[in-house]
Amino acid sequence: MILLRRELGDVLREQRRHQGRTLREVSASAAVSLGYLSEVERGEKEASSELIGSICAALGLPLSAVLSQVSTRVAETEAMSASVTFPVVSTSAIASAA
To answer: Which domains are delineated in the chain?
Structure first.
């Protein structure tokens, strides 16, 4: 099962690390506790839209860009986990072919 909070947390963590910033720096800029930001990044907390916006602003990223990355990740996960169906041949078709 795809958890949106986990995908969002992964994107936020990747962006923060890409910028070479610490949890402490971003949590101070976003005005959120270090522990709570850590839980958001680990996908353990469902952050409000206001909090997500604040984290994005602290990272200097448009909310739309972060949500687009999350959407892409969810789509990729869905594609990988899509069920594969095989054609079913009835036993009468097999018998008549023999």
So the answer is: 4-81 (1.10.260.40)
